[in-house]
Amino acid sequence: DDELQTDGNRSGHFRNGELGLAPANEEVIRIIAAQLAEIGDQFDREIQERVVNGLVQHFMNENLSNEEITRQMSRAVRELIRAIPSDMDQEKAMLVLAMVLTKKIVNTVPALLRRVFNTTVNYMNQQFHNYIVEMVSAARQ
């Protein structure tokens, strides 16, 4: 299906309704993705292996509901955000942290791709829907 990219490249297409975005100029999306990827590269070096391994254990536990795993992802992002410089937009930092965590989890256990991807998309929809829409709107202007 669609592929999650954290390197600024776009694999799939944004479809109407996905993240609630109207059809967008591909160049705007590419610019935003490149900016987020740059931030993600910085965060990637700072995320400790224990955080990733803890989330991997939650994702591997089939007894946990999707809601519980989403809460665990949210908790991990909130913990990591404390180490982010305060001059950075907190919502942007949290969005990028969620994507970087997803990448690291899937790199650790590729078999978790579908569950991790679905959880991340749900988390982003719940937490950052308005922020993403605002980011795209601002970039178009």
UniProtKB/TrEMBL annotation:
It is found in: Cytoplasm; Mitochondrion outer membrane. Pfam families: BID. GO terms for cellular component: cytosol; mitochondrial outer membrane. Keywords: Apoptosis, Cytoplasm, Membrane, Mitochondrion, Mitochondrion outer membrane. GO terms for biological process: apoptotic mitochondrial changes; positive regulation of extrinsic apoptotic signaling pathway; positive regulation of intrinsic apoptotic signaling pathway; positive regulation of release of cytochrome c from mitochondria. The keyword Phosphoprotein does not apply. The lineage of its organism: Eukaryota, Metazoa, Chordata, Craniata, Vertebrata. Gene3D superfamilies: Blc2-like (1.10.437.10). This is BH3-interacting domain death agonist. InterPro entries: Bcl-2-like_sf, BID. It comes from Motacilla alba.
